[in-house]
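Postdoc handover notes: sequence design on the structure in folder B. Input tokens:
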């Protein structure tokens, strides 16, 4: 995770350098932070996620009950 975040930060910094060379920058508000198109990321501009591989989970007898508990 640390390496992924480091690459993300490097990419953002490089994009921002390009913007600044054209006299522009990322949208930022003193009160709200960074302004994006997705309200759930307001202020940070960062979203992290993870995927888990659960082999053969769907072959379990109680698979539908598991999905029901997770509201899926």
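Designed sequence:
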């Amino acid at each position: 995770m640390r390496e992924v975040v480091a690459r993300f930060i490097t990419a953002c910094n490089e994009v921002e350098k390009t913007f600044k060379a054209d006299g522009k920058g990322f949208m930022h508000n003193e009160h709200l932070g960074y302004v994006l198109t997705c309200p759930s990321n307001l202020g940070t501009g960062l979203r992290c996620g993870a995927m888990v591989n659960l082999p053969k989970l769907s072959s379990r007898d109680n698979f539908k009950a598991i999905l029901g508990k997770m509201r899926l």
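Context for whoever picks this up: The longest helix spans residues 2-21. Don't rerun without checking with the PI first.
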